Give the backbone structure.
Amino acid sequence: MSFLTLENVSHLYFSKQNYTKALSNISFSVKEGEFISILGPSGCGKTTILSVIAGIIQQTKGKVHLKGKPLDQSTMAIGYMLQQDYLFPWKTIIDNVLLGPKITKQNDEELKQKAIDLLETVGLEDVALKYPDSLSGGMRQRVALVRTLITNPEILLLDEPFSALDYMTKLTLEDLVFALLRDYQKTAILVTHDIAEAISMSDRLIIMDTNPGTIAQIIEIPIELRNERPFLVRRHPKYQKIFDKVWHELNKYEQNFDQKGSV
Amino acid sequence: MSTHSDQQLLTNYRANLKKEKRIVVYWQLLILISFFVIWEVTSHYYLIDPLIFSSPSRIIQLLIERFVDGSIFMHVQITLFETILGFVIGTLLGVVFASILWTSIRIAKVLDPYLVILNAMPKVALGPIIIVALGPGYVSIITMGAIISVIITTIVVYSAFNEVDPNFSKVLRSFGATRWQCFKEAIFPATLPTIISTLKVNVGLSWVGVIVGEFLVSKQGLGYLIIYGFQVFDFTLVMSSLLLIAIIAAIMYKLVEKMEKWLIKHTV
Ligand SMILES: Nc1ncnc2c1ncn2[C@@H]1O[C@H](COP(=O)(O)OP(=O)(O)OP(=O)(O)O)[C@@H](O)[C@H]1O
Ligand SMILES: [Mg+2]
């Protein structure tokens, strides 16, 4: 049984004068413990897909099932990291991180310790009592990642989580998140503009086309690359070939990708 | 070496600031003193009618008398009490109304034209009706102090609620938050600075409502003293009351401003 299935999901955004068809007939499924990346031009509906899965927006058409149950009946914990960090400026870092537990009313010292440990793991020491505006963009993004991880979600939805990071931190965090997900058999969907990141972390890539957003192609990552750490995947002999393939596919669907880069 | 000269620059900068500040204070004092001196002199030599404009010396004399026999305290107290209660109630009710509007977009849409009318209407015109309905006492006056600020607070705070970035609620909802939790964790705290800044506006509005209320009820308070002085043609009393109101209102405004800064620092 698949963990998550989307069946002919379409979504329209309405405004008074007009509508935007953000998604059209999106169908795919994700197995438990699988890591999927979504690549595609800006505005093709990647964020919309994640918001639908997170239950934040209701799709106009189609079905979403989590572990066989329709989304609105599922009680599964979903971790959604938005495209921007959206740390609450009036809360300290530790309170930001503990927001999820607070909402679900589980506040204890143990969690607090876990939060501090996780912050340390992502390279943030002594920030617990600071406020978000005293942190750099990359630091804030890491806090947002910790805020998503702390609730121990069964499925992680990551919307360009590493975009504001310098290259070194990015590689470290990729390895870290990859290891965490593998160890706990967590399922994840990652949205990214970075082909290397997508290949090195995922089991499968979904490449999207725009206007309206559709799935253009699904590419399987060779089994040898799947279990390697992201850092090592980039040096694997098979890496270049798959990179070229993805590059080629993406170029078919997007003209403006190289200008945009990994923003 | 360079840190030494940098330090020197900082010292110069500070000295300049101090000097500038002193000049401003000099001028402020100069204006204040000349105002009272000119008033006194012109009144003394009948250049302005002393019956109408009185004079600083008479005002001070009257104030001293009233302070010594204690009769002024009651009036000051009453007016202060009514104003503070009026603006606190007005602000709180405004926030509560805004929250109710926020719970349902439909309610907000339905009530929108009524809010516009109520806001456009000069609230003090309701004075006579309020006094008939609630009786000629401090309840009516406090109501007038409150009613004058409640609608505008509702409108300002409600639109501030709607301007909060929806993505904060998105984050919360991804954790399964209810609408109430979104309000408590995101909407309200994000709007707190706006709410606090309405306090400062409302304190001024509240004075208007209370003084007009006291004119109408005519029993006690500084507004009553003004209307009483007017009726018996004792303009020294009118001017004294005005002076007291100006001083107390200014002090109150400054205190609210201080409180605002403190609140922003300690809650946001
Ligand atoms: N709240 C909204 N109201 C109206 N239209 C929207 C809204 N959100 C997104 N859209 C539109 O839907 C389409 C898909 O948007 P979406 O944010 O899902 O794209 P994306 O793939 O995440 O893009 P990016 O890579 O730039 O983040 C775009 O054309 C966008 O203009
Ligand atoms: Mg997006």
